[in-house]
Amino acid sequence: MTFSHLFKETPLGPYTLKNRIVLPPLTRSRSSQPGNIPNKLMAEYYAQRAGAGFMVTEGTQIEPRGQGYAWTPGIYSAEQVNGWKQVTQAVHEAGSIIFCQLWHVGRVSHTSLQPNKAAPVSPSEIKADAVKVFIETAPEQGALAEPSKPRALSTAEVEELVQMYKAAAINAKEAGFDGVELHCANGYLVNQFISEHTNNRTDKYGGSLENRLRFLKEITQAVAQVMGADKVGVRFAPLFSSTDEERVYLGLVESDPHVTYIEAIKILNNIGIAYLSLAEADWDNAPDLPDDFYQDVRKTFDGVIMYAGKYTPEKALKVLTKGNGDIFGFGRPFIANPDLPDRIKHQWPLNAVDPTSMYGGTHQGYTDYPIYAK
Ligand SMILES: Cc1cc2nc3c(=O)[nH]c(=O)nc-3n(C[C@H](O)[C@H](O)[C@H](O)COP(=O)(O)O)c2cc1C
Predict the structure, then answer these.
(1) Residue of 22, 23, 27 to mutate, ligand 1, most atoms within 8 A of C-beta
(2) Residues designated as active site
(3) CB atoms closer than 10 angstroms to residue 118
(4) Does residue 332's CB lie within 6 angstroms of at least one atom of ligand 1?
(5) Predicted structure pTM score
(6) Are 349 and 373 in contact (CB under 8 A)?
(7) 345 in a structural domain
(8) Contact, 105 vs 196, CB < 8 A?
C-alpha cells in the first residue's frame, strides 16, 4: 500500500468520506463570551481544515455543569445552536462532513466554572488527582487549577442527564451537524461511570461492569434515537500499562481495559453506531495498544474504526494495511497545517505547532497557520 490509499473514498454511516484523514476533536477555547457561543472565527478555522474527509468538533458541553475549562463552546442554548450553524454551513460549503463531539467533564471541573459556584457532579464523591483544569481568572485571562471535589449524582439526576444528551443531539441536528460523537474518553463523565476507581455507586449505574456501562448504553441509545445510530460515533481512550502509575489518565485508573472496552464495544455494536474512535496515549514514551486489543476491536465491531494519537501517515498506512483501522485522526499536525491532507498527499513539509496558543486567545495560532507555498 502507498499513501494514495489514505486518499481513497471510504463509507461512514450514510456518508462517503473523500479520504481517510480526520480532524479529531480539539479543544481550542475560543468561543464568544459570555455564553460560550461558537463564532465566525471558529467557522473560519473549521472551514480551513475541510480538506479532511471527516471532522469532529472540539468537545462541546451538553449543559452548563458539563464545562471544565474556560471558553469551551456549548450546545444547550439557542445562541450556541445559532453559532454552530455558521460552522456547519462553512464546512459543508468547503466540502467536508462534521460531527459534534458531545462532552460532559463530570468531576474534571472547578466550582468557578459551575452554575452558582456549586460542586461539579460525578458518579461518586471522589476527587480527580493528577489533572488540572483551566479557569478564567480575569476577562480573557486564565490559569491552571486543581479540580474541585465533586458531589455524587442521584439516580434521578443520572436519568435526567441521559435526557440532556438527547436534547444536545436534537440541538446538534438543528445546528446542521451530520452526526454526533459521544466523548467517553480521557477521564470525563462517561469514563467516570465506567471505571470502578471513580464509581462506587450501589444503584443500577454502579457495581458490576454491566451496571458501570449502563450510562454509556443509555446515552448512546438516546442520541441514536435522535440522529439514527448510523450518525453516531463513540470515543474511548483505553490505556494499557503494567503500572498503576502510568495507567492514571486524568486522575483515573482502569483495572482491566481489555475486558472493559471489548464489553462496551459489544453494546455499541448491538446499537449499530457508525464508528468507534479510539484515542491512543499521545505523550512521549506512552504505552502502545497491544496487538490483540486492536484485533479484538476489529472482530467485535462491524462499523468504521478510527485511531488517533501521534499518528504519522506511515503509522496510519501500517494500521490500515494490517486491517485494524479505517480512518485516522491527526491532532496537533492539523492545528498547525490547515492543508494537512494536501501536505500528506504531496509529502510537503509540515509547520510545527505552537503549544502556547492551543487553548484560548485570538486568531493567532488558530487561523493564521499558513498553507504550503511552493
Ligand atoms: C489542544 C488539544 C485539544 C484536545 N481536545 C480534545 C477534545 O476536546 N476532545 C477529545 O476527545 N480529544 C481532544 N484532544 C485529543 C486529540 O483529539 C488527539 O487524540 C490527540 O491530540 C492525539 O493526536 P495527535 O498526536 O495527532 O495530536 C485534544 C488534543 C489537543 C492537542
Answers:
(1) 27
(2) 188
(3) 12
(4) yes
(5) 0.98
(6) no
(7) no
(8) no
Three-state DSSP class for residue 21: strand
The range of the structural domain enclosing residue 145 comes to 3-330
Q: Domains in the chain: how many in total?
A: 1
- CATH code at position 156: 3.20.20.70
Give distance in angstroms: CA of 196 to centre of ligand 1.
25
Burial class for 176, CB neighbours closer than 10 Å (0-12, 13-18, 19+)? middle
Full pLDDT tens readout for the chain, 374 residues: 788 999 999 999 999 999 999 999 999 999 999 999 999 999 999 999 999 999 999 999 999 999 999 999 999 999 999 999 999 999 999 999 999 999 999 999 999 999 999 999 999 999 998 789 999 999 889 999 999 999 999 999 999 999 999 999 999 999 999 999 999 999 999 999 999 889 999 999 999 999 999 999 999 999 999 999 999 999 999 987 756 555 555 556 677 899 999 999 999 999 999 999 999 988 777 777 899 999 999 999 999 999 999 999 999 999 999 999 999 999 999 999 999 999 999 999 999 999 999 999 999 999 999 999 97
Burial code of 261-294, b = ≥16 C-beta within 10 A, e = fewer? bbbbbebbeeeebbbbbbbbbeeeeeeebeeebb
CB 309 near ligand 1, within 6 Å: yes
Position 273: which residue type?
A: I
Residues 53 and 41: beta-carbon distance below 8 Å: no
Residue 108 placed within a domain: yes
Q: Is 106 contained in some domain?
A: yes
Residue 21 belongs to some domain of the structure = yes
